[in-house]
């Protein structure tokens, strides 16, 4: 039987994971249910890999739920066989999430009643937060030394790409200094719809209630309740909303 470490409340859990407690606003369903946290290495999810998980690697679930998580495929990149500081709070149980870890101190939250189909690649102490009742269809999300936030009740259509940071380092030709040496982000507010094959690039915030047209390339912030489209994406209409 797995050993459970604690039964955390939601806001303290966010702090433990190094995430802003304000993100609790995107977890209205999760907040109503008791949670439990166990050592990641004692879960069947982690035991499927030939890895050594340090004592500070955790898995958080709802109380009474099975830790087998058959909807999650976990992989680790590179030759390393030991990871530390990883904390996965996997509370949505629909879809097929391919979760790829590329280093230590990675944090992931997937909220209740959320469906994720696609791949989430994390490296260099990245964090990824997906709120409650969000639907993601065959998307690809990448974060390295970056923070990804997707609010509650969002819709990411098929083949969406969310690129929080560059896949490889871009450096100055002389001296090799990184062009983007700072921590990067993508922040998507609640009730946002990203159309099919939309792409969101680093350092972008999309306001709540907005719609991004199919095929759009979002390179700058999009205000709340606006329709944006094109490459690069531009505001096409203001004061809009959408319904599922």
Please explain how this structure is put together.
It is built from 2 helices and 23 strands. It is mainly beta. The strands form 3 sheets. Strands 5, 8, 10, 12, 14, 15, 17, 18, 20, 21, 22 and 23 form a 12-stranded mixed beta sheet that branches. Strands 1-2-4-7-9-11-13-16-19 form a 9-stranded mixed beta sheet, with no helix packed on it. A two-stranded parallel ribbon has the order 3-6. The longest helix has 7 residues, at 10-16.
Please give a handful of descriptors for the protein shown.
244 residues; mainly beta; nine-stranded mixed β-sheet; globular; twelve-stranded mixed β-sheet
Largest sheet: 12 strands, mixed
Coarse structural class: mainly beta
Q: Judging from the principal axes of the Cα atoms, what is the shape?
A: globular
In what range is the share of β-strand residues?
35-45%
**Helix and strand succession?**
EHEHEEEEEEEEEEEEEEEEEEEEE
Helix proportion range: under 10%
User: What distance separates the N and C termini?
Assistant: 41 Å
Rounded mean pLDDT score: 93
What's the quaternary structure here?
A: single chain
The helix count comes to 2
Q: Ranges with pLDDT <50 over ≥5 residues? A: none
Number of strands: 23
**Radius of gyration, whole Å:** 18 Å
